[in-house]
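Running log. JK asked me to keep both predictions on one page so they can be read side by side. First protein, sequence followed by its tokens:
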Amino acid sequence: MFKHATLNRAYRLVWSELRNTWIAVAEFARTRGKRASGAVAIGTALALGAANAMAAGEPSPTALPTNGQVVAGQVGISSSGARMDVAQGSNSAIVNWDSFNIGSQAHVNFAQPDASSVILNRASGGSAIFGRITANGNVFIVDPGGILFAPGAQVDVGGLVASSLGISDANFLAGKYQFERVGAGGTVVNQGRLTAANGGFVALIAPQVSNSGSITATAGSVGLAAGDSVHLDFDHDGLLSFQVDVAAAAARADNSGVIVADGGRVVMNAQAKDALLSTVLNNDGVIRARSLESRNGEIWLGGGSTGVVSVTGTLDASGTEAGQAGGTVKVLGDKVGLFAQAKVDVSGVGAGGTALVGGNWQGKGPEQNASATYVGKDVSIKADAVGTGDGGKVVVWSDQGTRFDGSISATGGAQGGDGGLVEVSGRDGLAFNGTVGAAAPMGKTGTLLLDPNDIYLIHGADTTGSEDANVTASAIDFAYVNIGNGEISDGKLDSLGDVNIILQAKNLIQVGTFAGASQAVSLTALTSNTLTLQSGDNTALGNINFVSGSSLTTAGGNVAMYAGVNPVGNVPYATDTGTANLGAITTNGGSLSVYAKGTLTAGGAIASNGGAVSLSSQDALAVDGGITAGAGTVSLLANQDGAGAQGFSQADATTIAGTGITLTVNTGAGTGTGGAVLSTLTD
């Protein structure tokens, strides 16, 4: 929540399908007419699920499961007072119960042949567990009426599955753990303490699942899976995987408690039908899967193709011991939001890990891409190398629009190592108002990539860009689709420090405002690293433009520009236009390299003051403002593809000066006839 600056009102963020944006609304405002807010709706749903499990009221303190009928395997059942012993003689067994309630003073113990043994306990009408369950093997509890582990409940088993979805006897006995909705499909709620043995698992499966207690599976797996059909399987590494095959109406997975699976895997997966405005997955608790010995932890939150994935709590997959790398955190879904003071930590003493929010690098890879991603101003994402090692990889991505107001760090180790890789991008739009650190005190600085459709570089203090100022204390209202004004200030870039910065856009990178006003962009913090302007991806224009009178200056940092050209091998994109229209550029000792598929016009004075200057065009190259490289070399290449009559031209009364000047026209396999028009060259 956040407070209105003057009215002292509480607000929350909701997704507006009509406006295609996150919007701020009053805390208790209703959405879509009389429909209750997501928080109220899920609270009601979980309350109803718990009520189903306690339809006859809380069980008596000594209550035990009743009328167990063995339908498969060898099982002996005995009870004395408030204790029941279930002795399993076969590796697999199935028992159908009239009820599976356990009172607060009651204890059910499963004695199984070994840790790999498994028993299915099937009941109906809702199961309420207030007491203890112990087992040396794996225990499945299935009840379509719902399952409640109440406050004070204690479960200590090899592995646990609690599901309101059914499983057939044949599938269970064959080790095929396919769960399907049968009937009501109640809620599974944990408010107690669930503990699996080392390397074991805990899985809560239902259309709606919730944990507000504690779940522990050291070196094992924890899964909260919400849907109408769920499949469990073991990966090659022995960890359990959770696949939701069929979405459920009003599906939701919530964690407000503590989940720990150090050296293992935590998965929250909710697949909902038509959940346009609803939160389908929420974590405002703590999920921890730290590295353990040589195994890194994994945390994966997946919200499916509709609805909102919300994180306000902690996702910790760090490596805290000597030599340990950070693990992996993935927060994926249709609309992904990190709110309040959410924390994502994949730092490691030996190396930073990987944090993917809304997708993978440039929207590529097997991960689902979000349509919209939001990272709030008090959110932190860390992928640092704490000791000796490289910083990790952090990606914040969406296909339509990304709003980033938080902080990211992917620093190299204090004793050695390079900075990491950071991308904050939105394919159709980006509002960047956060901070990124990828320094390396003993190695190479890391890289920041910003990658929307269009970028406009302007001069001004941090927050003076139009996208810098989109956040206020009282409202968040940003249209992700068709962003027309993607201005980023040099003050904002300077606030990142001396880091490698890649600004990548599909259509246009412009030095100058969106409205076409000239700007004197000055990067005073860029003293040794590189600013890369890359326009084009083989799908759009791929142009670079300086508004007339605009300039770009660094404090010794390098500048590299690619207009319609792939930086890997400097290969032109087939479908891009790729024109570059430059203004005045001063690098104060840094190098300047420009590659253009189309015409390249250096309309302003270029002064590298000792840095190398390289201008290369597949088409015509014009130097209209002169070049002063001092002790630096100058390389000029026109009509690189060797086709047509495009050539090189230098405006009258201008000088190209450097230590070693190379001019080449008409290269490649073509039969170009372009010429060279020169004014003054000083070598």
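And the second, directly underneath as requested:
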Amino acid sequence: LTVVDEVFSINPISAQTIYVYPTGATLPLYFGPTQYNAAAGVTTANPVTYALTNNPSWLIIDTNTGVMQGTPTDNIKDPDTYTVTITAATDYCGATASADFIITVKANEWCGDGAVQAAQGEQCEGANLNSQSCVSLGYTAGSLTCKTDCGLDVSACKTCEVGASCQTSDTSYGSWFCAQRAGPEDGGDASWLERRYDVVTDYAYDSNCDCAASSNTCLWSQGCSGTGSQTCSPYPHRCCGTAASCCVNGRCVNGPYSAGGYIDCGGGGGSDGGGFTTGDSIAIKSITWDCGSLKQKASGSDNWPITWANDDSQYTSWGDGQGFSQSGSKKSLGASKVSGSSASSLTGTDLKTWPANGADSGIGKSYGILSVSGVLYMWVGEGGSGSNTDAWERSRVYKSTDHGTSWSKASWYFTESNNLHHPGFCQFGKDYAENQDGYVYSHTPSNDNKGVWLMRVPKNNIMNKGSYQFFAGLDAAGNPLWVSDINQKSRVLTHSSGTGMPAVIYYPAVGRYILMMEYGSFAKGNLAVYDAPNPWGPWTTVAEYTNWCGFSTTFFWNISPKWINSNDFTLVFTGTGSYDAWNTVTGTIVTY
């Protein structure tokens, strides 16, 4: 047998028929068809089998058809020749025959002609990358080039997580200034702290995968420096060294200190008093969301405020759906028990008794549920159809002493004329055990969407309307003022774009209260997150999101009080459309 232009010539092998094809071969490996004359008397009753010897490891033969195939394992630059032996055998008289084949593997003949011959195995030609790039090949950034053998060179392509930290932050130090003690964690009095603000430069991968300065963050260190009159530089509002003053416990820190001498910059008495924030949080740097951890249940039911009871179960309420059971008629308002150690292992059990003795036979909406001393309480918005602004007519509290088996309602309620609706309950761990001052706190949105009110009541007197007090601002020393007249209440928080239903929890791992609420347009995934040292503030901004997590129709969020592990937590939330359901994702609080 001979080789002619790398195509096998036609020769017989003991009058047997053997086919050699390029099946599965990668150019530039050439197999031409080699046809042999059929032997007389060889039929399907006397099949021929084939064997291959002296072959390279990448070359095989089909024992039944005689088809040879394979892909050379090396990057061939010079002709490489193999002499292989094919043996054919049949049980017809025990006949066998063999022949040698010369197989030549050559380097690409077309590389260098200026055109990308993809059919011949070329990936590129010089500067012609055949519309490929590092990004199209799955890398993040970098420079793609063509090698001399017309294969792509990806050695300069880069893979990184854009925005991820890439080196240790640098810290530069600013000047000293004075600030009033901010709250109980600082001692809770009117003395002064000497603080030093530091600029911390963080580094992260940019879109080119280069390690670059990404942001400047202010940090504060502190130490006591006595009391009395001292001249103070303006308190930084957002970034270190800005000239803007800002509020500390509702007072402007902007000059010489004298007891009670501050100008009120928020939280004044009266229904039109403004709430206040003090810029960016100095305790929580950010929240990392695992949006891919989304889990959904109870499709068609929304709201889902949640509390942790003494029986180690969590309890929640929902509206306009069928709850976890996903059966029966839709209910305006329902309540459920949530068992399990995580969102991945939960069991939701609907409390069937609620519609029978709930608000107006189960018509209403709730964004607040709480367990205190083994008793469940629920704020319910009642009125009309029980949906939308109809449920703003009355805000009434309900009580269950048997974990939701039965409920009784208060004889009183707040009305829409009080400029509030759908109060929530501030969560304090399992069965309210982390609360220290004996009060239950309820944050509630105003009907005009201009801010958030705050009321409190002794935890053993929740069903007594006369025991409720309303936040009315701060006194000269920065302490909260509480009044019994609801018309003298003052907002604790405002947002220029409008406020939705707030959900508040005391988060023990960071020693702060965290408030989450919708802002701006309804059901657009606009989530605002704040933190504060007290239920009344001063609230500082952790983050504001538009189209949070890409969940574009969400509108209410609250942290599960049970599913917290140090700085890691599970968020329960709801929305419209695809998110009209029980939804959870996990998150992590990043502190300074």
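Observation for JK regarding the second prediction: Confidence is low (pLDDT under 50) at residues 1-44, 173-198, 217-278.
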